[in-house]
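Sanity check

After download, print the first record. It should look like this:
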Amino acid sequence: MRVAGIMSGTSLDGIDVAIVEIRGRRVETIGFTSTPYPAALRAAILAVSNASTHTAAISRLNYQLAERYAQAVRRAVRRFGPVDLIGCHGQTVYHEGRSNTLQLGEPAVLAERTGVTVVCNFRARDIAAGGQGAPLVPYVDYLLFRHPRRTRVALNIGGIANITVIPAGAPPEGVIAFDTGPGNMVIDALAREYSGGKLTCDRGGHIAASGKLNSKLLDELLGDPYYRKRHPKSAGREQYGAEFVARLKARGLTLRDLIATVTVLTAATIAIGVRRAARMPVELIASGGGVHNPEIMHHLAAFLPDAAIATSADFGVDADAKEAIAFAVLAHETWRGRASNLPAATGARKEVVLGSITPYVRRPPAPR
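Expected structure tokens:
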């Protein structure tokens, strides 16, 4: 079965579409495209993310995003060929693990525009079963990266950073996964401020490299109880969004120094998470936009000298495409009626089939 996976994460950099061929447990990536969000749409998402807003804005954005997702899928299909199923994560605008979550992107519109059945709303069922609703990618990390003799840690550095710890030879219930804290989200927000809106991220880590680490601020930030909290746990824009950035700016430091400091914060909190959850040495397999920031990767290597650090591309999985690939795989599992959460990772009471299916039925022409 050929499946398109759509991912638009908390970094708000755009819409990723991966087309994969799934045969049994074998997953082959056919192609990948990424479509940046227009500035106005990005601003509209930010306006309703973890914010008091009008229901009209949420409703309109729900349909507007679906149209954008459909355009992105059609673009990928024109390039790589048709698909049988779409798995769409949707755009998270609010998330409270074990309580509630909201992803926008109306599946009926996506199905109607593409003529393909859509699986969406993956997080809700895990929350209904008592879980965090995140992270969900560990199921796919386990399929892709498990090894009989080596402990591996799959790291994704998106807006939020998360890890999947896969002990050598572990069964699925032996997997540990959680959000470690900020990934690119805080860096991106400060980079936009620094550049007057011209930059969406600290490309190449150049701003961080030109700034100076403020050790006092870093120590204060690392005092957040979240980093010592036991898993399962999840984080989002609720913790590291506009209010967090405003508190940082109120410290009176230059934006260069703030970016340098939160870049170290990202690497340090990932390292804390890895050391608390895994027995060293490990193979650390990184993916997500953060792998393109050499400052993050440099600090990470310094904090984890006994880890062999690679990217998912070294294992045949595009580092930018991995999460989109994951939601294609999760959609396929849902379509087959198979559970695809890992209770050990999310804290759910049991394994459940994730997501809701919006069928697209091609009706035969009426007889003459």
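If your output differs, re-run the checksum step. Summary of this record's structure: Residues 285 and 314 are 8 Å apart (CA to CA).
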